[in-house]
């Protein structure tokens, strides 16, 4: 974090931290799956996948029926959770791109306000090595046991910069690490913030034997995928039950989601159009469950459209804090909507899938190399991409030189701006209230609506590009 960012963060904390006492401030546990689609849970009607713990949470907490990842692939969505901003603002264009050190993360703000903070599991926002300027420790996490990307069973994870080989089913390992830390924090007088990002059910799909055997009646090609989802469900359930056992669940915000829409080959987007990699509904909609019994004691199913960008401003508000007003956010505080103090989302939701390629970050290979080097008494530095994560575009980028597929949702209207490789642009308009699956383009029937949304999208894209070029720092 830059000095300018640090001072802004401290100013926010000093202004608002006094509004809630430490005893009143909620603990926060954010849990995220990797490539789990909207339809990959029992409560959304999957005919085979067993998710009893998620089903129970959805029945007892706030179930979002329209919860969106901020991007149709992993790293960008993870950036949005920590910043409340569209990931293109900080140059996290696609998988493997590192978060900019200049960003003020949710963890940094909670840490400065006196929270204990920790990250467990998949990071995918840059190198997790000791000297990396973008590892979890440099982004506000006191404690971290993290991987550079997705990982499978018996993973090698980076524990505060040290490569450690763990044994067990990947989600069980991740959940157990988080639970051990939560148990320790529950004995203190500090509120805690834990981010638990599972590495499943991302391909190559290698389920624990017992989990796979639950699906012997299903086609062989799906058994490992379904088994990995059940492994996540079990690990999530253990975190949930531990919070209750420790007597801290009432004032803990437990928020579950996935990082993008369904795996293209084996996942389910339910009835929605397309899957991972697309900004049609199926590539963005994911399971979303929020529990905070102290504030929301009754179960609720909501059709409010919410995104992973909303997580940061909502958590800050719950903790009596406020984000830096000098930086444009793409997320909103959801509490007034959930408490029915507001009836309409105060701003639009927009997405932008640019033409930038992802960056390969094979976690097992990277961590195995680091483990071997450290066992021999040496160490390895961060990769060049992570070391240059703070660099700004040169020359500056414009909307015209940044092609891709963008969309904007205002209420129930959704406009797509689709730019081809040769620069040709076409638009599509959908009324999600009557056509949630985006089958009927009504652009010609509602030209005035399309014109209004086109201007809103253009203004938003201009704002994003300004941020990308460094205007916020």
TrEMBL record:
<keyword id="KW-0479">Metal-binding</keyword>
<keyword id="KW-0378">Hydrolase</keyword>
<dbReference type="GO" id="GO:0004065">
    <property type="term" value="F:arylsulfatase activity"/>
</dbReference>
<protein>
    <submittedName>
        <fullName>N-acetylgalactosamine 6-sulfate sulfatase</fullName>
    </submittedName>
</protein>
<comment type="similarity">
    <text>Belongs to the sulfatase family.</text>
</comment>
<dbReference type="InterPro" id="IPR050738">
    <property type="entry name" value="Sulfatase"/>
</dbReference>
<dbReference type="InterPro" id="IPR017850">
    <property type="entry name" value="Alkaline_phosphatase_core_sf"/>
</dbReference>
<dbReference type="InterPro" id="IPR024607">
    <property type="entry name" value="Sulfatase_CS"/>
</dbReference>
<keyword id="KW-0732">Signal</keyword>
<dbReference type="InterPro" id="IPR000917">
    <property type="entry name" value="Sulfatase_N"/>
</dbReference>
<keyword id="KW-0106">Calcium</keyword>
<feature type="domain" description="Sulfatase N-terminal">
    <location>
        <begin position="26"/>
        <end position="320"/>
    </location>
</feature>
<dbReference type="Pfam" id="PF00884">
    <property type="entry name" value="Sulfatase"/>
</dbReference>
<dbReference type="GO" id="GO:0046872">
    <property type="term" value="F:metal ion binding"/>
</dbReference>
<feature type="signal peptide">
    <location>
        <begin position="1"/>
        <end position="17"/>
    </location>
</feature>
